[in-house]
Amino acid sequence: MAKIIWSVIDEAxxxxxxxxxxxxxxxxxxxxxxxxxxxxxxxxxxxxxxxxRMSDAQxxxxxxxxxxxxxxxxxxxxxxxxxxxxxxxxxxxxxEELQ
Length: 99
Fold this sequence. Notes:
Elements: E1 2-8, H1 13-30, E2 33-39, H2 42-49, H3 63-70, E3 78-79, H4 88-98
Parallel strand pairs: 1-2, 1-3
């Protein structure tokens, strides 16, 4: 079965996921194509970077690195919505929350 990876991100484009992903699923299911999600949000990337600070239940894979590999494969299919990079204040707030 063919597969498409839909990148889940934070910030405003997440709203597009909630409205557009169900439509994409309706079309792809009819065509026998599976759509799976992959979290590449800022929070997800930070958590994946520090697995030694997480319990086993909290650990998540480095999905962004995995998507980098998929992007080089001839049969790799990724839907990536545009997002903005995290600002320094966002990064600091995220780090403070994790501490």
